Amino acid sequence: MTNVFGKYTHYNTVIHKLDPRIKIIGLIIFMVSCFLPYGNFMNTFLILGVMALLIIILMLISKSSFLDFLKSLKFMWFMALFLLIINVFIPYNSINSLHVMIKFSNGYTLYWEGLMNTLMVLIRLIMMMALTLIFTATTTPMDITYGFEFYLYPLKFIHFPVEVIAMTMSLALRFVPTLLLEANRIMNAQKSRGVDYERGFISKKIKSIITLIIPLLISCFSISDDLSLAMNARGYDPYAKRTRYRKLFFTKKDLFAVFFIIIFLSFFILISVLSKAYGINLLEFLFYNIPKGSTF
Questions:
Q1: Is the pLDDT of residue 292 over 50?
Q2: What's the pLDDT tens digit per position in 182-228?
Q3: What does the alpha-carbon distance between residue 295 and residue 209 come to, in Å, rounded to a whole number?
Q4: What are the extents of the domains in the chain?
Q5: Alpha-carbon distance 163 to 25, whole Å?
Q6: Beta partners for 102?
Q7: Are 62 and 55 in contact (CB under 8 A)?
Q8: Backbone angles phi, psi at 132, to 5 degrees
Q9: Residue 267, Cβ neighbours under 10 Å: how many?
Q10: What is the predicted pLDDT for the residue at 233?
Q11: How far apart are CA 166 and CA 145, in angstroms?
Q12: CA 38 to CA 27: how far, in whole Å?
C-alpha cells in the first residue's frame, strides 16, 4: 500500500510505542531547536547537519517512507522561489560586511548572504516537514487528541473548551493526508481530460491549478459534511464527560526519551548561547584549537 504524507502507519517500533505526550513535546523542542540562532552561517549549517542526521535516524527507526517524504517536497518550489526573492532581492542594511554575488549595471547588488539565508530557511522548513511526518506516521489521531488534551488541561480552570480544541486539532491533522489523496485523485481525473499541470508557461499552470482548487474545495466541504453527520449519528457531544478506552502510562522507554530530549535541548541551547555571546566558530573549536599531543 502506498504511504501518504501525514498518514498513520502501524509498525511495532520504539517510536510508535512512545507516549503521545512525549512525542508532542519532543516535536516542539526539535522544531524550536531548528530555529535557534547559532551565531554565523557555518555554525548554523553544522548544527542543522547534526539535526538532519538525527532526523534520518528517527525516520529509519520509525520506518517512515523516505520516498513519500521526497515526493512531498516537490510542492516547495514556489516557497523556495518566494524566499529567494525575499532574501536575495531585498537589500541588507543591517549587516555590516556583505559578500557580493552579482553586481548589476544599474547599481543594484545581490549578496551571498541572501542566498545563504534562503538555503537555511528551506532546510529548516524541510526538517519541520520531516519531523511532522515522523510524528503523524507514528501517532494515531486519538493519541494526538489525548496528548493535546493533557497539555491544555490547565485551561479548563478558566472554562476553556479543551476537548473541542483538541478534537479540532486532531481532525485538522487527520485531514492533511485525506486532502492529499483527494488532490491526487482530482489531478489524475483532470489529466485524463487533457489538463497538463507540469508543462507550459506560468499563466497556463495557474489556469491548470484553478481546475484543481475548485473541485478540491467542493470535495473538502463534502467530506466535512459527511464527517459531521457521522459524528452526530454516533452521538458525539464535545462537552460531555467522557472516559478513556486506553489509559496513558509512562514507561521506561518514555523516561529514556525524556532524558534524550533534555540532553538534546540543553546541548543546542548551550551552543546557541556560546555562539551568540562569545562568537565561537564551531569548526575552529572542533578541528583547529586542539592541544598539541592530543589524539583526534
A1: no
A2: 888 888 888 888 877 777 676 777 777 788 888 888 988 898 899 88
A3: 59
A4: 1-161+250-282, 163-238
A5: 19
A6: 110
A7: no
A8: -65, -40
A9: 13
A10: 92
A11: 5
A12: 20
Site of grid cell 518550489: 77
> Which amino acid would we find at residue 278?
Y
pLDDT digits (tens, 9 = 90+) for 131-183: 988 898 898 888 888 888 888 888 888 888 888 887 887 788 778 778 878 88
pLDDT in tens, 248-273: 888 888 899 999 999 988 888 888 88
**What's the predicted TM-score (pTM) here?**
0.74
d(C-alpha 163, C-alpha 156), whole Å = 9
User: Nearest to residue 36, comparing CAs of 48, 25, 24?
Assistant: 48
C-alpha cell at 221: 466541504
